[in-house]
Structure formats: C-alpha cells, structure tokens
Specification:
The chain is α/β, with parallel strands linked by helices. It has seven helices and 20 strands. Bound molecules: nicotinamide-adenine-dinucleotide (NAD).
C-alpha cells in the first residue's frame, strides 16, 4: 500500500518504520528541515542543546523493551541525578526512584534509530488534503500536489491535525479545540560557581523545569563557560508572554537561576525557542490514536497518549499494530 504520513516526529517516524518494515511504500511530509519534532536540538559553538524533551521515562513494558535495545546500541544513556524542586522560593533535594533516560548524543537519536526504507520530503508543509477517486491527495503550501495514496496518517499536534482534516473527516471530533499550551525554552551558557549536584530542577510557576545540560553524560561544552542550561518556562508564563513578547526571556531565565541559587552568574550566550505546541492538557481517549477506517485515515501523536516521549512511541505502535492485524 502507498501511505502518506504528515510529520516526522517520533510518532511519525515510528509509524513509518513499522509500515516500511511490513513492505508498505511510505512517503513522509515534514515542514521543517530535520527529523525529530519535539526531540529537536540546536548546535551552538558553546554546546549542542536539546531544546525540546530533556529526558524521558519508560513505564510501558513494550517501551521498556525498546529502551533496553536502545541502551544496548548506545543510542540511549541513563541520566542519573538527584532531582531538586522549588518550594516557596527555596531549592530543596527531591530524591525519587525514577529512571530517566536521554538520547545519545542527543535526544533525536531515538528517531534516527528508527530510520528505515521510507522517503522524507523536508521543508514541505502540507496545507490541504482531499480524498478523490485515486486516493488521498496532499497539497503543499508551495503549490505542489502529491497524489495516489491509499492511506493517510497525520502525526502533527492536535490543533494542526484538526485544521488539516476537518474538511474531509470527523475523526478529530472527540478532541477538544485546544489541547496544547506553549513553552518558552531558553538555553544559557553561564559563568559562575554553583553547587555541582544541582543538575535537574522541577521548578515553579515561572520556570517549570531546568536542566543543567553540562552535567549530562557525554555533553561537551566550550571550555570558556562553566555551565550550559536549558530552562523551560511554565505553560502559563509562556502563554502570558506569547511569542512576540518584548521581554528579555534570556535575562528572565538568568535572573530565575541566580535568585534560586543565591549566586552571581554571568550569561555568556543564549538561545531561545518558542514552542507553540509543547505541554498538553490530559485527554480521555480509550485508544492512543484516532482512526476513520472508511476514509482510510489515522491520527497519531504523543498528545493522544499522555504527551510524553513514551506516548509518541506507543501511539504509533498501537495504531500500526491494530491497522495491520
Ligand atoms: P518525570 O516522571 O520525571 O516527571 C513528571 C513530572 O512529575 C515532573 O514534571 C514533575 O512535575 C514531577 N516530578 C517527578 N519527579 C519529581 C521529583 N523527584 N520531585 C518533584 N517533582 C517531580 O517524567 P515524565 O513524566 O516522563 O515526563 C518527562 C518530561 O516530559 C517532564 O519534563 C514532563 O514535564 C514532560 N511531560 C510533558 C507532557 C506534555 O504535555 N507535553 C506530558 C507529560 C510529561
């Protein structure tokens, strides 16, 4: 069968890989320049930054098996650290038993491990889809037409999937209009001494999570900086500021760190990214994907299955397993 797949994040690539391994002809359409979606990274002279998911956990037995294989292939490492949390403005240790993993060298390694015999059209934003006599037709924002697909799989964020699909299917009907909230992500290269065991912080209403990337196994930082951080501002704070904010987000991140650590830090470089679709509100589906069998259309994504890295993998796996049974 010929399958068109919109989106090259983890769920899309996992689905494409399973389908390709079953002998189907898969063509992926991805609006950005690379694979990975929210496993994206940014290469700076002062360090390579994971800017989306900072780590992942594995709760499902099937996903745990996958993680074991990734560990064996050195595509994944365990990130062992003592978590901290913020309580009434104070930084306090918050130990737990959770095993946290990172992709190696970067989070998008999870996606590169799944690359199989499929084609990817990069920088190809699909703006319209329609069903006709010869199957699914996809129209790009640049005016290109791709046709003759037996099945269409969409793995973009819920809001974008709805925009694309509402004119041809009611598959998105059970999904609320707004599923995601934004996140301002800020990478900081800092100079100044802070305690060595502070590596990951579950934050507050301003910054929800802070990773000391320079403490992660395998991270290479420029010698002139002491630390490299990735801060994820809270959904509420990010929504309030919006993408077009005039606030100095990098300075806000530095101030937050300095106050929390009661230390003087100097910012030597920064990188900012606004994730429009980052955090999600809980959904209550009984299946981790949506399907319109009559139209030969399926919708997958981390957002269908809890929003985690694991959810992306499970959504794709369950969808393809059920559809190809
Ligand atoms: P996890 O189990 O480490 O963390 C889940 C959440 O539980 C944390 O964000 C934190 O609020 C809390 N938490 C966990 N351990 C804690 C501790 N020791 N002290 C204080 N609080 C603690 O990881 P996960 O559930 O696999 O999530 C991985 C990452 O993905 C997290 O950063 C999480 O916020 C994020 N996530 C995002 C979505 C989404 O909507 N996109 C959904 C789930 C998780």
């Amino acid at each position: 069968m010929k399958v068109a797949l919109v989106g090259a994040g983890l769920s899309g690539i996992k689905a494409a890989s399973l389908l390709a391994d079953l002998g189907h002809e898969v063509t992926i359409f991805e609006k950005s320049r690379g694979l990975g979606g929210r496993l994206a990274n940014r290469r700076e002279a002062w360090g390579e930054l994971d800017i989306g998911a900072q780590y992942f956990t594995a709760r499902d037995p099937g996903f745990q098996q996958q993680v074991k294989l990734w560990l064996k292939a050195c595509a994944v490492k365990i990130w062992e650290f003592l978590p901290y949390r913020v309580e009434q403005g104070a930084l306090i240790p918050s130990p737990d038993e959770t095993v946290r993993y990172i992709g190696s060298p970067l989070m998008n390694q999870l996606v590169y491990c799944l690359v199989s015999n499929f084609a990817v059209n990069f920088q190809c934003k699909i703006s319209k889809v329609a069903k006709s006599g010869d199957g699914w037709r996809l129209f790009s924002a640049d005016g290109e037409l791709f046709s003759g697909f037996d099945w269409l799989l969409v793995s973009s964020p819920a809001e974008q999937s709805r925009t694309l699909l509402d004119s041809c299917s009611d598959v998105m009907a059970p999904v609320p209009e707004v599923v995601h909230q934004p996140c301002w992500a800020v990478g900081l290269a800092t100079r100044g001494k802070i305690p060595g065991d502070v590596q990951g912080i579950f934050g507050d209403e301003t910054v929800r999570w802070a990773s000391r990337l320079s403490s992660r196994p395998g991270f290479i930082k420029a010698p002139e900086v002491d630390d490299v951080w990735m801060l994820h501002f809270s959904p509420e704070w990010s929504e309030q500021q919006g993408k077009e904010t005039t606030m100095d987000i990098g300075q806000a991140g530095l101030n937050w760190l300095q106050t929390l650590m009661a230390a003087k830090l100097e910012k030597s470089a920064e990188y900012q990214h606004y994730w429009r679709y980052a955090n999600m509100k809980p959904l209550t589906f009984d299946k981790p994907y949506l399907v319109d069998e009559q139209q030969r259309l399926a919708v997958i994504g981390a957002w269908c299955a809890g929003g985690r890295v694991e959810g992306a993998w499970l959504s794709a796996q369950r969808c393809i397993q059920d559809l190809t049974d």
